[in-house]
Amino acid sequence: MGLEGLFGLKSSPIREIVQVSGTAYRMPAAKLQRIFQLSPDILLRFSRFAVVNRMQVLQTAACNRLHEVEKRLAPWLLMTQDRVQSGMLTMTQDFLATMLGTDRGSVTAAASILHKQKIIQYTRG
After folding, report:
1. CA-CA distance, 52 to 35, in Å (whole number)?
2. CA 112 – CA 104 distance, rounded (Å)
3. For the purposes of burial, counting CB atoms within 10 Å of the CB of 23, is it exposed (0-12), middle (13-18) or buried (19 or more)?
4. Are 107 and 73 in contact (CB under 8 A)?
5. pLDDT for res 41
6. Is 69 exposed, middle or buried (0-12, 13-18, 19+ CB in 10 A)?
7. How far is CA 113 from CA 51, 71, 90, 119, in A?
8. What is the tens place of the pLDDT at every residue in 43-87?
9. Model pTM?
10. List of residues 6+ apart from 96 with CB closer than 8 A
């Protein structure tokens, strides 16, 4: 469980999906809650993260409703690139379609537009 477990919730309807490969760490929620008691500064940082994360989720939901696929694809690629700290993202257009809540053909068209504008590069396969 993610942030929900840190704040005492026992379950969550949210499904977590790993988008790209990398390193991750886990810790039992009870252990991290003890650390929060010992270091209120760490609790404050986690709380700020939770608030910023919620704002980002709400912004993404609004953008998914209001903007064309290419306007959703570009920020999604930038956010993913920031998180993996690499210029190379290895993923399929089908996966991107799932992440953007659209179909593969729309992602193909959007990626083509960004490619023609020299914003992104991609290869087949």
Report:
1. 21
2. 12
3. exposed
4. yes
5. 95
6. buried
7. 34, 10, 19, 9
8. 999 889 889 988 988 888 888 888 889 889 998 888 888 888 777
9. 0.68
10. 73, 76, 107, 111
